[in-house]
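Troubleshooting log. The previous run stalled partway through. Resubmitting the same two chains, unchanged.
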Amino acid sequence: MSQAVAQVVAALAFAGLAAVLAARLGLGLGREIVVAAARATAQLAVVGGLIAAVFRVPELAVAFVALMVLAAAITAGGRLRTIAGSRRLAAAAIAGPALAATGLLLAVGAFEAAPRAIVPTAGILIGGAMAATTLTGRRLLEGLRDEQDVIETRLALGDDVRTALRPTIRTAMVTGLVPAIDQTRSVGLVTLPGTFVGLVLGGASPATAARVQLVVLLALLAVELLAALVISEAIRRRVTAPGERVVVPPAG
Amino acid sequence: MRLARDGRTVLDGAQLRVPPGEVTALIAPSGAGKSSLLRCVVRLLAPDAGAISLDGVPVADLDPRALRRRVGLVAQTPVMLPGTVRNNLAYGLDAPLSSAAAHDALRAAGLDATFHDRDAHALSGGERARVAIARALVRRPEALLLDEPTAALDHDVALLVVDALRALADGGLAVCLATHDLPLARRVADRCVALDGSAA
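Second attempt completed without errors. Output:
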């Protein structure tokens, strides 16, 4: 039996085992497990084929990265939809830092300027920026509602909006960056991240894989910080009304 | 003036004059728009129609930060900022606050100088109300607006607060007190103005 066939059979067997076990235990998850497994199979088959094409045609790589940015902006923007134009704001917070960092890594020669390096690197940085944008933005919107009295007190004492919102924005940015910081400091101890695993499975030496992983992780710290900063700044502008007032968007 | 929030008219046809040296009581049931009106004065809300002036100058023409120093607003449940009472008094001031000025403000608000270094978050409701008044006073305002300053207080503490307000008005400050407590308003105010809440 070839390795490819063995992989598919093993994977299907695991999914089948999980579905049967779930049914036996009466978890009511049997159907969901089967659907999730089928979706994963279909999505990865499509992406596998697409990526193969993308790696051959550089123009497609650009389109693919643009598609990733779009999907990330729609996802993060949807989580911040109480803010007008949230998708555009999310797109700026995600694409700006993630694409700039990708460009910088290519410019200094950290990765080869080929689709097979650009697409995954950009994908990881876009994903990180998306998470930081969503977390920071949501925490900031919650903070604006929860701390309305404190913010109004600061304004009434003569603060401008920027000063009055500073503590709320700081808390939101810290919340948005905790996952990136924890991921960075626990790497190798708690998790072996995707880049490392992928490179090792692909035949790279563990030393090379570790080096590439380190570059990605450290770039992520800066990218996520910048994404958190951009979305905070954008939301601050959106809620600032003429006359040093703050207009808090409704919950939702 | 008129003000609508979330598509609901909360104030319509409200008219009020707050002269210096007097305590003006704004009497209204809860939900009649007292807080909204006071917040409009310092431009934390923008009215939909009407005019609010300070010394004859429309507040909309004043720099909002300067306006908020000239007109102190004490919220219904005053928020204490982090740190000591002193940190609260000195918050956001351009020049360092002298101990003498801090003590004067505390005394004028009915507190003694020992409060100076207390943790603001450990204070009782009545103490917070008076620290909030002192916090407005160190900014040397021309007018003081208070939103239900005695609502959460025991009767004795409420009297302390209104006596302090009376003394401030006698010193030349324009004091406007929004309350639903008519007997209290009668005790302290030179004039009572009713807001009937019919817009709400």
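Takeaways: Strands of chain A lie at 240-241, 245-246. Chain A has two domains: 1-56, 58-246.
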